[in-house]
Design brief:
Low-confidence stretches: 240-265
Number of strands: 0
Helix content: over 70%
Shape: rod-shaped
Distance between the termini: 135 Å
Mean pLDDT: 79
Strand content: under 5%
Number of helices: 5
Structural class: mainly alpha
């Protein structure tokens, strides 16, 4: 199976099959990306090898072209020496023929190497284009994996919350809350009732005190007047107080002296 067939297999048939089987899409996507990266590394290794072949065949073609040119130069030199009398014509032609044969062989090797170079270069260009596309695909799926992880985490959280909520008894919870609310209302009403009762008791006491006066205060005023009477001092009864002197030891005809009216000197 070729590299791009594996890509199509993973991101079409296998991806849908995994989702249908309820397998973990995050783990499967991560595995798919790892497989693509493995293919990418293998492809880059193959590209390097093809480029190396292209470089070697290009150098071979250049070298054989140089050799062919050198043989042709030597053949020309032999013929020139034959014309100048430096070599016998027959010998010069024999050597020139041999040199030209070698030039032809070098030319054929150069042509063959050039053809191989062009073939390797085309293959390298195709691999380079496919590798660039594969790099782009891997980068895109890596970015989508980030989004997929976030979506999966959100979905799992929502699923967990919904599962927890589905296991709860909303009727029982509402009934409990209503019961607690009624209980609090009852406690508040009872506290308010006690407060009103206490306020009524305190109000009655204040009204009686205003009407009758404070018994302790009245008794203290009465005691003060009696003490002043014993000492022969001017006695002025407090408002509402009545002076009752003790019975005189001089006889039964003694009478109680009423307290002077308030406001008189």
């Amino acid at each position: 199976m070729s590299m791009f067939q594996r890509v199509r297999t993973f991101f079409s048939a296998e991806a849908h099959a995994v989702v249908d089987k309820l397998e973990d899409p995050i783990k499967m996507t991560e595995q798919g990306i790892r497989d693509l990266k493995t293919d990418l590394r293998s492809s880059m290794t193959g590209l390097a090898e093809v480029k190396a072949l292209a470089i070697r065949t290009r150098k071979e073609a250049e070298e054989q072209t140089r050799v062919a040119s050198d043989y042709e130069r030597k053949a020309v030199l032999l013929l020139e020496r034959s014309q100048s009398g430096q070599l016998e014509p027959a010998e010069a032609e024999r050597l020139a023929t041999e040199v030209l044969a070698r030039r032809e062989e070098a030319t054929q090797r150069a042509t063959r190497a050039t053809s191989e170079y062009e073939q390797h270069q085309r293959m390298a260009d195709q691999l380079q284009s496919k590798i660039s596309g594969l790099k782009s695909t891997v980068g895109r799926y890596e970015n989508e994996l980030v989004t997929l992880r976030a979506r999966s985490q959100t979905a799992n959280s929502v699923k967990k919350i919904n599962k927890q909520l589905s296991g709860m008894d909303p009727t029982g919870t509402v009934a409990m809350l209503e019961k607690m609310k009624a209980r609090v209302d009852e406690e508040e009403s009872l506290a308010q009732a006690y407060g009103e009762i206490l306020e009524e008791d305190t109000g009655v006491d204040r009204e009686l005190e205003r009407a009758l006066g404070n018994p302790a205060q009245v008794q203290a005023s009465q005691s003060l007047l009696e003490l002043k009477a014993k000492l022969g001092m001017d006695t002025k009864a407090l408002p509402g107080a009545r002076l009752q002197l003790p019975e005189s030891t001089g006889g039964a005809g003694s009478e109680a002296v009423p307290a002077p009216r308030t406001g008189q000197a």
